[in-house]
Design a protein that fits this description.
Layout (H helix, E strand, L loop, with lengths): L12 E5 L6 H11 L3 E3 L1 H9 L8 H11 L6 H16 L5 E4 L5 H13 L6 E7 L2 H10 L2 E3 L2 E3 L2 H4 L1 H11 L1 H11 L4 E6 L4 H14 L3 E4 L2 E4 L1
Parallel strand pairs: 1-3, 1-4, 2-3, 4-7
Antiparallel strand pairs: 5-6, 8-9
Helix pairs in contact: 1-10, 8-9
């Protein structure tokens, strides 16, 4: 099914993709702060799951979380189990959804598009791909810190060089080309230059989303539909 040129049918589902270090999480959060939309991230949900007592998790779930520690992607079934109920719950609020870090393989394209089609959501989805070079991404990852229990620290997979290289092999620009090609058959896909300041990148993304009907410009500001 070829996608329409503009979104239609209700509040948007904005999926922000990009290689590690592209700033997709930051841009998704900025969109969320601008709009009354729910922000979902498979990575965040997996990290929350990892904090739970392992003894209370099924053995197959524990095995998948071990993959994540090595920089590998977890099984698609676990991502779907975490994400799909959250998407449905968020859409019931009527204000749209922002997702970052989802759909990293062609198989996941099939899984997500089947879900969107089943719930009549396909014409409400737009994908924004934030493109940065590997050199720029590595520079950002080395400098990145996250807040854990009130303290700023580095993520384990940003510090471990071997894990970082593996992440680029399975999640970098080259690995995501077939994913974007597959997505274009079903939903709108916009590629945005991810170099420059956070504000510059945000403006580029907002301009694209205005053209596709996911945002509108009002009084010099970008607001949600």
């Amino acid at each position: 099914m070829a996608p329409s040129q503009e979104l239609e049918g209700g509040p948007p589902i904005i999926i922000v993709l990009g290689p590690p270090g592209s700033g997709k999480g930051t841009q998704a959060q900025r969109l969320k702060d601008r709009c009354k939309m729910s922000h979902l991230s498979p990575g965040s949900l997996l990290r929350e799951l990892k904090k739970k007592d392992p003894k209370k998790l099924p053995p197959k779930t524990r095995r998948e979380l071990k993959k994540m520690e090595r920089g590998d992607m977890v099984g698609h079934w676990l991502v779907y189990d975490l994400m799909f109920p959250k998407i449905k719950k968020a859409l019931k609020k009527g204000n749209g959804v922002i997702i970052d870090g989802a759909i990293r393989t062609v198989e996941q394209v099939e899984g997500y598009t089947e879900f969107f089609e089943k719930h009549d959501l396909m014409n409400r989805v737009v994908v924004v791909y934030v493109h940065v070079t590997k050199a720029e991404a590595v520079k950002r990852l080395k400098a990145r810190k996250v807040k854990v229990n009130g303290k700023w620290t580095k993520r384990e997979d940003d510090v471990n060089r071997k894990a970082m290289e593996h992440r680029f092999a399975v999640q970098g620009n080259t690995a995501q080309r077939p994913v974007l090609k597959a997505l274009k058959k079903f939903v709108l896909v916009e590629k945005v230059d991810g170099h420059g300041t956070i504000n510059q990148i945000e403006k580029r993304i907002a301009n694209r989303l205005v053209k596709k009907g996911a945002l509108k410009k009002k009084g010099g500001k970008y607001v949600c539909i």
